């Protein structure tokens, strides 16, 4: 089985936000929720970088570790998913997540928050694959159709890579060797306790 | 902004670090262009406990935080520190109380009940006490459930029933925060004048409150132990309520770091208060004969009052005698003598 990961090559990301839009459209993500976002650091200064960030599907995921109702599970592809029928909207996963991935439909609503929503690596949820019920709760399940996450598939500069960790690390490594520079794999140390060795 | 400056300063110091990391910085860096290594930035941020943040074009400023390593500290607090402190405090207190009860048993009223009673807590004080008490019990149980429920109740109830219970627990926790807070404020106003420390408390504490035998030290309306209980409830409850409201309204007053800190204060103080309240419940029910009357009917036996709160009881009895003398013929029910 593959170990699914995201890798954002920030030397290629042009902050076009197509990944954000693709994600919102593919899963019909409601207003106020962004499963994926593009953060620009050092904006307008030397060393400006844009990084597309979503749930990194961590090894030893902090969200799963702190969830009071244990609603998280990890698929055979190491994708971290959760069961919205069990989620109580307590917000603990949001406190623990290093990437700000968990989102809530009713943030200001008196702490009730509603069911947590986050990137599913386009792998849906615990419902039957590619059913209406699964789509309404979690969005489409491209993984079950044999496809990779749409954000990365749509990326115009191929900055955002999604897929088996070994393969995307190899792609990134080859790029860095060819062009002679690379600022590294954002979030990898935090999410996977490892970096891409060049 | 400050963070951004911090990171900018950090970046200026980074090139040599990045170069020593064996990164593929083979291309000569143009003057003024700092090579940024994701690993180094993350590592440095983690070491400083800082966040990596920037700018986003979506209208949600919180989303500009790229990586916040403090999440790891909060996780360690929640899963390890809180679980141990809470477990030891609550189970430890239960153990101490059981042991005390087995060894010492109920403290009986010296000389038995006299049959005549004296008013200790009027209706308003009892009503407020029970508003705080009932909301505290539900808040405590639903709060403990968030930390210990998945280890204790989840295997017993199964995921669906446990999630439903926790969901209702969360709603109860959110809404009962309001009567609890109101009750704490009213409690402060009603009882603060009787809870200011005096020299009598010092003597009471030196005698150990008569807890382990010996003569029962004199006390005013509230003894030193009750005064401590009062201040733990009012101050501890106040901080727990304030931090709770910060969590109840996400991002209204704090950022994510503030919410993590609020949760830490909230939960640690809460488990310690639960332990203290267990002792309070024991003393008010099984521990001391006659104490329950004070908060149920409000009328306590005169012998109980003289035994546990002699200074207060004597003053009350003297006052009632004076009133009876001032209004001859008027016989008050429950008035002593």
UniProtKB/TrEMBL annotation, chain A:
<keyword id="KW-0411">Iron-sulfur</keyword>
<protein>
    <submittedName>
        <fullName>Formate dehydrogenase FDH3 subunit beta</fullName>
    </submittedName>
</protein>
<dbReference type="InterPro" id="IPR017900">
    <property type="entry name" value="4Fe4S_Fe_S_CS"/>
</dbReference>
<dbReference type="InterPro" id="IPR050954">
    <property type="entry name" value="ET_IronSulfur_Cluster-Binding"/>
</dbReference>
<dbReference type="Pfam" id="PF12837">
    <property type="entry name" value="Fer4_6"/>
</dbReference>
<feature type="domain" description="4Fe-4S ferredoxin-type">
    <location>
        <begin position="78"/>
        <end position="107"/>
    </location>
</feature>
<feature type="domain" description="4Fe-4S ferredoxin-type">
    <location>
        <begin position="4"/>
        <end position="34"/>
    </location>
</feature>
<keyword id="KW-0479">Metal-binding</keyword>
<dbReference type="InterPro" id="IPR017896">
    <property type="entry name" value="4Fe4S_Fe-S-bd"/>
</dbReference>
<keyword id="KW-0408">Iron</keyword>
<keyword id="KW-0004">4Fe-4S</keyword>
From TrEMBL, chain B:
<keyword id="KW-0479">Metal-binding</keyword>
<keyword id="KW-1133">Transmembrane helix</keyword>
<keyword id="KW-0408">Iron</keyword>
<feature type="transmembrane region" description="Helical">
    <location>
        <begin position="82"/>
        <end position="103"/>
    </location>
</feature>
<keyword id="KW-0732">Signal</keyword>
<comment type="similarity">
    <text>Belongs to the formate dehydrogenase gamma subunit family.</text>
</comment>
<feature type="domain" description="Cytochrome b561 bacterial/Ni-hydrogenase">
    <location>
        <begin position="120"/>
        <end position="298"/>
    </location>
</feature>
<dbReference type="InterPro" id="IPR011577">
    <property type="entry name" value="Cyt_b561_bac/Ni-Hgenase"/>
</dbReference>
<feature type="transmembrane region" description="Helical">
    <location>
        <begin position="171"/>
        <end position="192"/>
    </location>
</feature>
<keyword id="KW-0472">Membrane</keyword>
<feature type="transmembrane region" description="Helical">
    <location>
        <begin position="228"/>
        <end position="252"/>
    </location>
</feature>
<keyword id="KW-0812">Transmembrane</keyword>
<protein>
    <submittedName>
        <fullName>Formate dehydrogenase subunit gamma</fullName>
        <ecNumber>1.17.1.9</ecNumber>
    </submittedName>
</protein>
<dbReference type="InterPro" id="IPR016174">
    <property type="entry name" value="Di-haem_cyt_TM"/>
</dbReference>
<keyword id="KW-0349">Heme</keyword>
<keyword id="KW-1003">Cell membrane</keyword>
<feature type="signal peptide">
    <location>
        <begin position="1"/>
        <end position="18"/>
    </location>
</feature>
<dbReference type="GO" id="GO:0008863">
    <property type="term" value="F:formate dehydrogenase (NAD+) activity"/>
</dbReference>
<feature type="transmembrane region" description="Helical">
    <location>
        <begin position="264"/>
        <end position="283"/>
    </location>
</feature>
<keyword id="KW-0813">Transport</keyword>
<feature type="transmembrane region" description="Helical">
    <location>
        <begin position="130"/>
        <end position="151"/>
    </location>
</feature>
<keyword id="KW-0249">Electron transport</keyword>
């Amino acid at each position: 089985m593959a170990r699914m990961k995201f890798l954002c090559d920030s030397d290629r990301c042009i902050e076009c936000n197509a990944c954000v839009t693709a994600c919102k459209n593919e899963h019909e993500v409601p207003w106020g929720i962004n499963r994926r976002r593009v953060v620009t650091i050092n904006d307008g200064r030397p060393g400006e970088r844009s990084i597309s960030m979503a749930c990194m599907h961590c090894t030893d995921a902090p969200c799963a570790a702190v969830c009071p109702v244990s609603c998280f599970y990890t698929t055979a592809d190491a994708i971290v998913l959760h069961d919205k029928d069990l989620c109580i909207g307590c917000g603990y996963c949001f406190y623990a997540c290093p990437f700000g991935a968990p989102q809530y439909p009713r943030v200001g609503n008196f702490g009730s928050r509603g069911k947590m929503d986050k990137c599913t690596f386009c792998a849906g949820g615990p419902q039957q694959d590619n059913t209406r019920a699964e789509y309404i709760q979690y969005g489409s399940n491209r993984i079950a159709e044999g496809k990779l996450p749409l954000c990365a598939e749509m990326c115009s500069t191929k900055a955002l890579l999604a897929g088996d960790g070994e393969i995307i690390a190899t792609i990134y490594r080859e790029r860095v060797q060819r062009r002679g520079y690379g600022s590294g794999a954002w979030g990898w140390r935090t999410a996977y306790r490892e970096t891409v060795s060049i | 902004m400050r963070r951004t400056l911090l990171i900018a300063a950090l970046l200026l110091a980074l090139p040599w670090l990045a170069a020593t990391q064996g990164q593929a910085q083979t291309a000569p860096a143009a003057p003024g262009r700092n090579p940024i290594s994701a690993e180094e930035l993350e590592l440095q941020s983690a070491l400083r406990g800082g966040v990596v943040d920037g700018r986003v074009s979506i209208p949600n400023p919180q989303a500009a935080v790229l990586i916040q390593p403090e999440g790891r500290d909060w996780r360690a607090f929640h899963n390890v520190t809180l679980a141990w402190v809470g477990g030891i405090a609550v189970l430890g207190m239960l153990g101490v109380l059981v042991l005390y009860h087995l060894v010492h048993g109920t403290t009986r009223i010296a000389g038995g009940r006299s049959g005549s009673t004296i008013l200790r807590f009027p209706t308003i004080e009892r009503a407020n006490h029970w508003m705080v008490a009932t909301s505290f019990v539900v808040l405590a149980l639903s709060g403990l459930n968030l930390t210990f429920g998945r280890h204790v109740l989840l295997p017993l109830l199964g995921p669906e029933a446990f999630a439903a219970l926790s969901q209702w627990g969360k709603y109860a926790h959110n809404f009962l925060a309001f009567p609890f807070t109101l009750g704490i404020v009213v409690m402060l106003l009603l009882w603060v004048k009787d809870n200011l420390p005096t020299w009598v408390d010092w003597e009471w504490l030196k005698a150990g409150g008569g807890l382990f035998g010996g003569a029962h030290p004199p006390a005013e309306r509230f003894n030193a132990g009750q005064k401590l209980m009062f201040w733990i409830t009012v101050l501890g409850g106040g901080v727990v309520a304030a931090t709770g409201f910060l969590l109840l309204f996400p991002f209204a007053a704090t950022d994510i770091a503030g919410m993590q800190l609020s949760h830490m204060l909230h939960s640690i103080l809460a488990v310690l208060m639960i332990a203290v309240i267990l002792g309070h419940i024991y003393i008010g029910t099984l521990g001391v004969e006659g104490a329950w009357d004070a908060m149920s009917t409000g009328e306590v036996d005169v012998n109980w009052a003289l035994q546990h709160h002699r200074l207060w009881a004597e003053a009350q009895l003297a006052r009632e005698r004076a009133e009876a003398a001032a209004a001859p013929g008027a016989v008050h029910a429950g008035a002593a003598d």
